[in-house]
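Input sequence (150 aa), recorded before submission:
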Amino acid sequence: MTSTGTDTVDSCNNLALRKAARYLGATYDKALAPTGLRATQFSILQKLSTQEQITITSLADMIAMDRTTLATNLKPLAREGLVTVEPSPTDRRARIVTLTPDGLARMKAALPYWRTVQSEFEESFGQDKAARLRAALEDVLGTGFHPWAE
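Predicted structure, C-alpha cell format:
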C-alpha cells in the first residue's frame, strides 16, 4: 500500500503542533524557572489578573483547557497561596477562582522573564511570523471541534 503523502505521521497536524508546543513550553518553563512558576501556571495567573473572580469552567474556556486539567493545575497554585478556589455563593456546584495578592505579586515578578523569552522568540522567529502564528492558532480554536463537551 502506498502513501498519498497526506496520511503519514509527517503530515499529522496534531504531532506538528505538539512538537512545537513542547519545544516552546520547555523554553518558557526554563525562562520562568527562577520565579518558581511553569509556563502554564504563569498563563493561568496572567489570565486571572484580568478578572476579579471567575468560575473554573469560565477560566477553562478562556484558556482552552478541560476543567479537570485546570483544577489539577490550580492545586499547587492554591497550596502556595497564589489563588483561592472556593464554592460559589450563588451556585454550590460552581467553584470560583480568585488571584491572591501573593499570586499577583508572583505573576508581576515573572513578567520580566516572560517578556525576555517572548522577545527572544519573536526576534528569532520574526515578529510578523509570530503574530501570524498566534492568529492561525487562534483560528484553530474556531474549527468547530468540541473536545471537552460532555
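Checked by second reader. The mean pLDDT is 92.
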